[in-house]
Amino acid sequence: EDQVTQSPEALRLQEGESSSLNCSYTVSGLRGLFWYRQDPGKGPEFLFTLYSAGEEKEKERLKATLTKKESFLHITAPKPEDSATYLCAVQAMPSSASKIIFGSGTRLSIRP
Amino acid sequence: KAGVTQTPRYLIKTRGQQVTLSCSPISGHRSVSWYQQTPGQGLQFLFEYFSETQRNKGNFPGRFSGRQFSNSRSEMNVSTLELGDSALYLCASRNPADEKLFFGSGTQLSVL
After folding, report:
1. To pair with A78 at 20 to 30 A between CA atoms, which of B23, B48, B74, B90?
2. What is the tens place of the pLDDT at every residue in A46-97?
3. What is the C-alpha end-to-end distance of chain A, expressed in Å?
4. Which of A90, A100, A106 to mutate to test binding with chain B, by most B CBs within 10 Å of its CB?
5. Which of B33, B99, B102 sits opposite A96 (nearest CB)?
């Protein structure tokens, strides 16, 4: 069965302190891996899609990377406004019609 | 372009009752997915509809059902509510050619 595991569950950092969030996945064949950000009281907001091992995507202070078994979301010099829950999701082959499965998320808190 | 709209925003019900939640997708999006989000389980996939047909289904009991109308609006119904059904129910739409999900703000359901 397709599965997504995220760690840690929660992470508290000082402003400017870089770190990484982990997403491990088990899927029969990966069509795509996604990262979303969720703020309290809101639905998740799309950040990145990664398709193959070795691929990287960047947006402001965030960089997502992908291997055959896991993905990392690297946060460089974070600011308090980066505080949110970050969700990882996978979509299995064979097609874009396949369902998208989410992990439980990592709650990130950045202290000023 | 208007985003995904979910109504109502909050709902309080008692055990044994039934409830219907509504979702209006982004204009032009024909796929609508439903997720249940709880602190312990994270985002759990319920089902996905495309062009009025259920395309994918998660591991939820038959008390959870849904439908999609010709204008792509979707409804989700939960019958014989249980305390454990208390959760945030999120709806997401996408263009099937693009795997990116756009989420609504959700319906917070409390079962007393």
Report:
1. B90
2. 999 999 999 999 999 999 999 999 999 999 999 999 999 999 999 988 776 7
3. 41
4. A100
5. B99
B77 close to B89: Cβ distance less than 8 angstroms: no
Give the three-class secondary structure for B72.
coil
Looking at residue B71, its amino acid is: N
pLDDT tens by residue, B45-81: 999 999 999 998 999 999 999 999 999 999 999 999 9
* β-pair type (A10-14, A106-111): parallel
**Best mutation target, B30, B34, B100, B107, to test chain A (most A CBs within 10 A):** B100
Alpha-carbon Rg for chain B, nearest whole angstrom, is: 13
Question: Is residue A105 classed as helix, strand or coil in its secondary structure?
Answer: coil
DSSP B59: S
B62 touches chain A (CB under 8 A): no
Distance CA B6, CA A88 (A): 23
Residue A41, H or E segment: none
Contact A102 B35 (CB under 8 A): yes
What is the distance between the terminal CA atoms of chain B, rounded to a whole angstrom?
A: 37
Q: Are B21 and B80 in contact (CB under 8 A)?
A: no
Spatial CA neighbour of A44 closest among A36, A56, A35: A36
Rg (CA), chain A: 14
Structure tokens at A109: 């808190």
